[in-house]
């Protein structure tokens, strides 16, 4: 599919200059687009990644010309100790954290008739455990006020998508967790929300995948598939001071596709 674009690297910084942000799963795809947007706004961004040092190096090189700074931090979030360690590193480096974007996810294609229980449990754990292990550390890290926790969800949390059982259940649980986090963290001035999206246009596809993507693009009221940059823009908006009164909400960024039957 065509229509890919980069997040804006000029113009308004949305008041995010100097904010310290951590994005999980940040060296490729949607996570990288979110990191790019925050860097373009002047934030200092920690890019969490699990395995590929090569992807991390490419990501850092790509973000180097932007207004903010980018630092890669390796940590496999399947290890419950990983995110607390990364948060402690952020505190030691910057003295605080302003934004936590949880984008990392795992997905094993399956349906309910032939579910891989171990893989399903892994998908759910990747969605929930990093945030749950982070919660005890966030009030101190974000004590300056105005903290943001943003989870990345998908419309598969509410719609039946073939093969999407594990991640669909994980994202539904993640959206529920965001509501609990919003209540628990609000007394500390921290706003927790989620951004949900439909199928993303990540570049070239072929065969059946291309035909499906083209049909979804045709049906989308805005005239094309959602790109990672579109979602990154919404994440950045939720980080602004003006979004402080949004708590526990799931904001859908899909060009209006979900409005149709």
Automatic annotation (TrEMBL):
Q: Which UniProt keywords apply?
A: Oxidoreductase
Among InterPro entries, the record links this protein to: NAD(P)-bd_dom_sf, SDR_fam
Family label: Belongs to the short-chain dehydrogenases/reductases (SDR) family.
What is the protein's name according to its record?
Short-chain dehydrogenase
